[in-house]
Specification:
The structure is a homodimer.
Chain A: E1 2-13, E2 16-28, E3 33-37, H1 44-51, E4 59-64, E5 67-68, H2 74-84, E6 85-88, H3 100-110, H4 116-126, H5 142-154, E7 160-164, H6 172-187, E8 191-195, H7 199-203, E9 207-212, E10 215-221
Parallel strand pairs in A: 3-8, 3-9, 6-7, 7-8
Antiparallel strand pairs in A: 1-2, 1-4, 4-5, 9-10
Helix pairs in contact in A: 3-4, 3-5, 4-5
The complex binds adenosine-5'-triphosphate (2 copies) and magnesium ion (MG) (2 copies).
């Protein structure tokens, strides 16, 4: 479902150049659960943003379900971001003045979903936040905010979930619950890509791609745990 | 150096009450390195904010170096926050339009420090960001932002460092380097309190306080690793 070839992403700061991605190629089959790992600053979020159609590479090709993403219209890309892909951001990207429930129903309001509040409530209950629905973002703990971001990414029933370090603020129990949730979403046929620093999260995934300094340095097959 | 007795913190949302802290008492000796652990939402950040003089409890007493914090003037509290305590925030709290270097030198500018840029640069080098000094916060990875927050907390040479989940966005190598840094700061006599979800970080600390649902449920002594 995802075919990326030769992705390049460069930044210039002053007179030095950062090669955030260097000739990166990734293939992900439909229904796969893949981990992306690597040191801090190695290019994982940069890759995820390109796969999530939030950013475009300086070179290389990205085919999503056979479409060349670089050739799609703005409208088509927006539709893909809203309905095909659910993105859990590393820094959550929640709206500060809104409650957990309001944040999670937001993607549904764009498509005038009839039961937005009910669907949003169930998503929050599935991440253990049924008793925090009306707390605003400044009234929630770091790990609760992370779980609101996870709930929001699931709520449009996306075919692809991209999760950028979804358990960094969670204790091992809450982290384990999130991995079970991802497993059940994957069992429904969704494609799941998880950036993680946690080896136990990576072990849960059938495949693992390791990135270092903007390059893919290894592709690993795990026996499922 | 830290003596807290019977701390209470309550919030009202709608008609329900959240007891974020419930009769919490903690004593920390000078030069100790202590971990605070517990599930997401259990009250760790709430406790850290009170210990860091950023928030006040609804009940209970907090003595810092023998002073009753509730009785100190606004000026005295500001001086303590700027010079005695270095705080690494769970959500970093960096200034968006500023570079890594500018963020880290900010606490030094308040006290008109003569060599602010040099001290800030060395702090960033000590967390592996010597080649990212001039990147602004939106040009840094999640783990790089976390390390900028750590550098900023060290730069005023504080006697007490409070770090709220300082390795959540770091791979195990970078996380290990941060723990070595904390160890060397502790060896210089500084008191270090680390909130963490990472058992390997907790094992590095001589003592561990476990919190659940706003209450302290265990105090553990580790043999040093
Ligand atoms: N807008 C930008 N301008 C300049 N450099 C950037 C920009 N965005 C990212 N970088 C650099 O590109 C590199 C890769 O960043 P990226 O966020 O993809 O890393 P990461 O693997 O997600 O790291 P982490 O595990 O710390 O989140 C980093 O070294 C970062 O400093
Ligand atoms: N301003 C507030 N209003 C209402 N409830 C709050 C407020 N701040 C925190 N809470 C609640 O108090 C509890 C403790 O929050 P705290 O941030 O201390 O948790 P934590 O242990 O740091 O969690 P995490 O590991 O997820 O960061 C949480 O359940 C949270 O929802
Ligand atoms: Mg990242
Ligand atoms: Mg917290």
């Amino acid at each position: 479902v995802i075919q990326a070839y030769g992705l390049e992403k460069r930044y210039s700061i002053g007179d030095s150049e950062v090669r955030a991605l260097d000739a990166v190629s990734v293939q992900v089959r439909r229904g796969e659960m893949l981990a992306i790992t690597g040191p801090s600053g190695s290019g994982k979020s940069t890759l995820m943003n390109i796969l999530g159609c939030l950013d475009s590479p300086d070179a290389g090709t990205y085919l999503l379900d056979g479409d060349d993403v670089a050739k799609l219209s703005g409208d088509r890309l927006a539709a893909i971001r809203n309905r095909k892909i659910g993105f859990v951001f590393q820094n959550f990207n929640l709206l500060p003045r809104l409650s957990a429930l309001e944040n999670v129903e937001l993607p549904l309001l764009y498509s005038a979903h009839r039961d937005a509040k009910t669907v949003a409530r169930k998503a929050l209950e599935s991440v253990g936040l049924g008793n925090r629905l009306h707390h605003e973002t400044n009234q929630l703990s770091g790990g609760q905010l992370q779980r609101v971001a996870i709930a929001r990414a699931m709520v449009t029933n996306p075919a692809i979930i991209l999760a950028d370090e979804p358990t960094g603020n969670l204790d091992s129990h809450a982290g384990g619950e999130i991995m079970e949730l991802f497993h059940s979403l994957n069992a429904q046929g969704r494609t799941i890509i998880i950036v993680t620093h946690d080896p136990s999260v990576a072990r849960h995934c059938r495949g693992e791609v390791r990135i270092s300094d903007g390059k893919i340095v290894a592709t690993v097959r795990h026996n499922p745990v």
